[in-house]
Design brief:
By secondary structure, the chain is α/β, with parallel strands linked by helices. It has helices at residues 5-18, 28-31, 33-41, 51-63, 96-106, 131-147, 158-181, 199-210, 236-239, 252-256, 280-284, 306-323, 358-363, 375-381, 407-416, 423-437, 444-457, and strands at residues 22-23, 26-27, 64-66, 71-76, 85-89, 113-119, 127-129, 190-193, 214-218, 245-248, 258-259, 262-263, 266-269, 295-299, 326-330, 348-352, 367-370, 386-389, 403-404. Helix 1 packs antiparallel against helix 3, helix 4 (51-63) packs parallel to helix 7 and helix 6 (131-147) crosses helix 7.
Length: 458
Amino acid sequence: MIVGKEYKDKFLPHWEKWKRVTFRGYNYGGIIANELSHLHHIDGNGKKYNLAGELKFLLKSLFYKNLNLPVSVTNISGNASCSNTIGFVMDDDNRGDYLKQCEFVLNQLNDYKIRVFTVVKDVKLKKRFAFGSSINKLIIVVKVLSNVSVKKSFKSQSLSKNINLLAKCLFYYDVIENIKLNKLLDNVDLLIAFSDMKQYGNIFVQSAKIQGIVTGTLQHGIYIRHKDDQYSQSAINYLNSPADYLLGWGESIVNVFNVDGQTVKKVLLSGSSVKDYQIDDYYTTMDQTRLPSNKFVVLFSRSTLRQSNADMLRISQIVASETGYRFDVLMHPTNKMEHYEFDKCTNLNKIYQDSSLLLKLIDDSDFCICHSTTVYFTSLLKHKACFRYEDKYFIDYGGLNDKFSDEKELLNKITESAHSLENDKKKQVEMLLKHQFGNIEYSYKKSIQTLLNQAVKS
């Protein structure tokens, strides 16, 4: 898995060339950015691309038009006295924890008429030969071949991968045409996309902007601007965001969209979109007494940090064997079991793959171990000590004196620190949590009303 400066130096120049590919107001580099950024992470590994197969995919995409859309539309009736209609694009991948964030926001919008767009990737597409659309698609092909170095942009299978991306662009052209043909955005006053950096969220936002509709997107995790050694796919959360507004969590997000003193994105602070990350939870659980369990939990990061996860697993086993602790592992939704040597961990209690168990595992443990992820602040929110593994890929979002880089430092931290956060740290933790998750008075209902007011003015 390629991360850091090597990743940045390969991905960014390649993506800049793709961003030159535009047609009828749509930027195809923005649409395929998520897929392109992932391919650079796994360059040399992962799926093998067959050149003949990709050329066949390209020709089918070029000469055949998709007659239906892999998107379902659900209309939700709101308050009869409210005439506004809000379009809402769910998470592209229908990931469980992200869908919960979508539902959390939707539940605050019950005063309005909502048109919900859900990606259905397993839908059977109907195709028909269409000469007219083939001419337009051919223009896209020419633009890609004129701007993108298809043979040298990846270390391995560069031609096949770029042809695959090109064929997907032609598929997304059909998606765009279907949105227009079916008038999916007609009478929509405001469009909110869960993630405008992913393919369908990006397409819907670009389509809405072309129609003059005010657009917003949701913060779905903790963002930070990456330094060279930390560069990864998550950088496109702020690099590839065409929506007019970001509905952010707390003050920390504002700096991410402030470059050299210039604001590059309008941010409306709305509080966390994760039900379990609400700042008022910190106060309601403040005085709960917890009994020791002689167990801790290791919280893995996304698959791009596979080596960091493996290091945490190795260190945890050493520390557990020296202290007598047992430990659990909660995998990230993007992790794969076969990438880790769990069989060598004699103190390992259980491996969990269901991210909905996060809070229970935190509550059932004496302390937590993580890298640089949102779960660190979740631990603090639940008044549980969490030790952060600091390697060259570590990103410091702010925190307590709880970082370690090897088993010796972790042993010292465990010995020195109480498992629950001491009283003298609680004010510091409160300020950290507000900075990341927002204040109690923030709400999506208020932010959406502000956007609707803006839509009326425009």
